[in-house]
Design a protein that fits this description.
alpha/beta, Spore Coat Polysaccharide Biosynthesis Protein SpsA, Chain A, globular, two-stranded antiparallel ribbon
Length: about 250
Amino acid sequence: MQNTYLLVLTATITPDSSIRLARSDPGLRRQDYFNAFCYWLNHNDPRLSRILLVENSGADLADFRLVASRSKKKTEFVSLPAKRLPPGLHYGYGELAMLDLALAQSRLRLETTHMIKVTGRLLFPGLPKLLRRLPANFGLAVDARRNLPFRRSANGFIPTQLLIASHDFYDFHLRRCYRELKPQYPYYIENLFFDRLRAMHDVQGILWRYPVNCEPLGSAAHAHKRYDHPTRTLITMLRAFFRVVAPGFWF
């Protein structure tokens, strides 16, 4: 059976004021999301022909719906009202909570076998190449990393800007996991994902590392920088190098 994909774009146009973000202006964030949405609408890869956009701050999505109506792609929208995060928790709680709610409502999910979860402000030009390199029978593909020794924390983490999972795997192993987040460790969803997967010794179909680089383009939310900054570009090149010569070295 051939894998079919639902591209799920998560969006928070007006973030919770309790979260410290460098890119917090709703106007800038709306433009980021809109530009990225148009990028995916115009993408010519047939595997990306079904798109679900979920937004969780109660923002008006009329402009998104208008451009989608002019596209031949199948699109769905889930708009959720703004809701305060539990005290001490970060964006991962809200992002995964809205993901669960949106997937439960999605009709396009029923037409597909896998989801590609993407932070809706970002672009991933390498996604088609990554999809070509994934095996047919995987349950979850992530790009796990460990902090380098000179960094403060030695915790492993899994970036959640892009993850690819079969619907069955996500439902059985990861749905509702945001409820395990606490103000103390694991504070970030990236750490919680890493720990949960590390405990799944007997679970088949987990790809811990992408076979190729698939780095984001766009502006970071947590700092005043872009993902194509020269320093980030150098790190990307090093990651590509080590995937070939030392696949077990994650950073």
